[in-house]
Amino acid sequence: MSASHVQRADFDQVMVPNYAPAAFIPVRGEGSRVWDQSGRELIDFAGGIAVNTLGHAHPALVKALTEQAGQLWHISNVFTNEPALRLAHKLVDATFADRVFFCNSGAEANEAALKLARRYACEEFGEDKYEIIAALNSFHGRTLFTVNVGGQPKYSDGFGPKIAGITHIPYNDLDALKAAISDKTCAVILEPVQGEGGVLPAQQAYLEGARELCNQHNALLIFDEVQTGMGRSGHLYAYQHYGVTPDILSSAKSLGGGFPIGAMLTTDAIAKHLAVGTHGTTYGGNPLACAVGEAVIDIVNTPEVLAGVNAKSEQFRSRLLAIGQATGLFSEVRGLGLLLGCVLSDAWKGKAKAVLDAAAAEGVMVLQASPDVVRFAPSLVVEDADIDEGLKRFERAVRQLTA
């Protein structure tokens, strides 16, 4: 079957129906521009859901991938490999962490973080200390464990008995956390910015208070930085923006710039509880993924790129706010760095999908984060001309929609 014979209608015949993809099929990308099967050009402000850190077909990533492809693809964790060790060194050097565990996705990074937290508590304090506290409207992945920890019942209902020992509390509510935490708590897991829950940043005092409560109760503080990590906040990791250090951090999405990779970062004292044989993954830390991840961190973890994220963030914010206020579509733009959410006004509540579709028709790709928030997660190096043109298209779409 040649490529040209595959159409959107094929999806409905051969794929499990758990997605409802757009009517067009993107086939090529360069920078922040994408072309579909018909040759139509779109500007990409979705970034593959906060994944394409450096846009599409970035020369440094293409080079890293193709060079590694000519050497070694996969060898398993029966052996270690050079790209994994290099990337681990770079992550350790740039963060609070002493140790890294590589896997293939954000869900796997969170699964490892949660398993490690339970293992640590069991071995240090006994098997009664296994309770996990998470936030309502949080999202931590789609495995049975992570989807139960996530605070969105629509994703966890209907898959049999829930995993025991998980409590959900309102986000940014320190009193609720205080009331829920106890000496049975092994971990508190939080996103520094709730991504899928509506691009909602944590308040400074909330994260500081969570750190303090975890210290008091010998609980581990886990930051899910799958969406906020690798430069998206204007810092390499968002915990650095807040100045609050977790015990365990999960990373994925932007870490691979489009190549699947996840990582769990932690300290020596905690890491030792995952002794040989306690956890594993066949593909995790494979040379291809780690070679690309290394190229990503080399570019992103530089003053120019991180400062650029904040400058571009301001460009987006001011222009989006003007569009929202002129059209009445939204009145608030919130988020951190280049993870931004436009909160729909009462008249447009629940209609984020309509905004996405209108934008796509005008040639710009955006996302939703809940039905009430339009989300932007562009490349961290998106060019000013693309920001300008993309927002012009977005404004046209919004004006048509609200006319």
Blueprint of the fold:
Elements: H1 8-14, E1 26-30, E2 33-36, E3 41-44, H2 47-50, H3 59-69, H4 82-94, E4 99-103, H5 106-125, E5 131-135, H6 144-149, H7 153-156, E6 166-169, H8 174-180, E7 185-190, E8 193-194, E9 200-201, H9 204-216, E10 220-224, H10 238-242, E11 248-251, E12 262-266, H11 268-271, H12 287-300, H13 303-327, E13 330-336, E14 339-344, H14 352-361, E15 364-365, E16 367-368, E17 373-376, H15 384-402
Parallel strand pairs: 3-15, 5-6, 5-7, 7-10, 10-11
Antiparallel strand pairs: 1-2, 2-3, 4-12, 8-9, 11-12, 13-14, 14-17, 16-17
User: In one word, what is the shape?
Assistant: globular
Number of strands: 17
Query: Helical content, roughly?
Result: 40-55%
Uncertain spans: none
CATH class of the largest domain: Alpha Beta
How many DSSP H or I helices? 15
For the record, the CATH architecture of the largest domain stands as 3-Layer(aba) Sandwich
Q: What integer is the average pLDDT?
A: 97
Compute the CA-based radius of gyration: 21 Å
Oligomer: single chain
Strand order of the largest sheet: 4-12-11-10-7-5-6
Mind summarizing the main beta sheet? 7 strands, mixed
Q: What is the CA-CA span between the terminal residues? A: 44 Å
Report the β-strand fraction as a percent range: 15-25%
Corresponding CATH superfamily of the largest domain: Type I PLP-dependent aspartate aminotransferase-like (Major domain)
* Number of separate structural domains: 2
Derived structural class: alpha/beta
CATH topology of the largest domain: Aspartate Aminotransferase, domain 2
